[in-house]
Amino acid sequence: MNIDLIRQDTKGLSDNKIFFNNAGSSLMPKVVVESMIDYLQQEEQFGGYEVANRNAKLLEQFYEETAKLINTKSSNIAFATSATEAYAKALSSIIFKEGDCIITTVDDYISNQITFISLQKKLNVKIIRTKNLSDNELDLEDLENLIKQHHPKLVAVTHIPTNSGLIQNIEGVGKICRQYGILYLVDACQTVGQMSVDVEKIDCDFLTATGRKFMRGPRGTGFLYVADRILEQNFAPILLDSRGADWTEYNDYELFKTAKRFEHWENSCASIIGFTEAIRYANTIGLDSIENYNKKLAEKLRGNLQNAGFKIQDKGNHLSSIITFCGPDGDLENIQRVLKEHNVFSSVTYKNSALIDFTNKNVNGIVRLSPHYFNTMEEIETVSEILKNSLK
Ligand SMILES: Cc1ncc(COP(=O)(O)O)c(C=O)c1O
């Protein structure tokens, strides 16, 4: 991995900022922005439909690059405008009835939890959350017992929560879901681009992701993976459009075969082109290399902050490039101010975004630093020093 070259490709780093907010919205490589500008300029000249026809092959590469990213086939990929849109489309293809049960975790993403609560309010769907073990790992035995007891319609797990460094054992969950024939939805929004993802190993039915975070794509992009077994059983979003089916009779349609049936017809093609370039960029570097490098950055930063006296809030045996912490007395504001003064990009999450996790951890919020492969070990040391000095 040539970090110098990667940094030259990242125009956002040219003003000496230290960018540690990749779990929020990362810096796009210049090829991403250039490809989008070029595409928009073509649309300016010829109109969107003509340009889409001319670029049909290039637009198809989105499916090929995404398939490569997560080890599947192009036909299992749908473009989405966000991870949340992909998630809603997947959920809407499952016909929930009163009394049906969804099993999820206490660490799942806020919007997913709100969606489940909405299903509870509107359809009387039951929400059950698995326990964590004392080391904060998912309690797979509890999950299996809950499945046996409640026969859920769906198990839904966020791989890497937005508000904690935790990496959940989604392959372990996948094995149990397959054993009991339960639908399995994985939110990999914070995972893609940060580490390698293999849907064959996870054995999930649906997987959702976004473009603008560790993937380094533009805003308004994401994707949905749909397994063959789901496509073969004719799952489709409840509100289909002409992207999803052929209108064959006055009152009937025939579903298209691929996961594109989970898309809507209208999309920003420039965004798809930019997102494709972002995925190609990561695929070319290699997700294993990115993952190994990120692990070293995160471990170093977490260790330094811990040694300096900050309270690290990442709990679990497998931790990601999301580092969450607060001051020795729970302080967030001072840390935020100091980071801002030194041009370090970070973010803060408050309790309402992680209600269960932060209640259990007894914190009102956390500061989140999320370095990525364009960052250097020197930057890790610089930020550690800045924060250490702020405690003096
Ligand atoms: C774990 C997780 N899931 C889902 C989302 C939602 O992504 P989007 O805003 O692209 O819908 C986020 C966003 O922060 C996230 O961190």
Automatic annotation (TrEMBL):
Residues 18-382 form the Aminotransferase class V domain. Signal peptide: none annotated. This is Selenocysteine lyase/Cysteine desulfurase. The keyword Lyase applies. One of its GO terms (molecular function) is lyase activity. PANTHER family: BLR4730 PROTEIN (PTHR43586:SF24), CYSTEINE DESULFURASE (PTHR43586). It holds the Pfam family Aminotran_5. Belongs to the class-V pyridoxal-phosphate-dependent aminotransferase family. It comes from the Bacteria. SUPFAM superfamilies: PLP-dependent transferases. Keywords: Lyase, Pyridoxal phosphate. Its cofactor is pyridoxal 5'-phosphate.
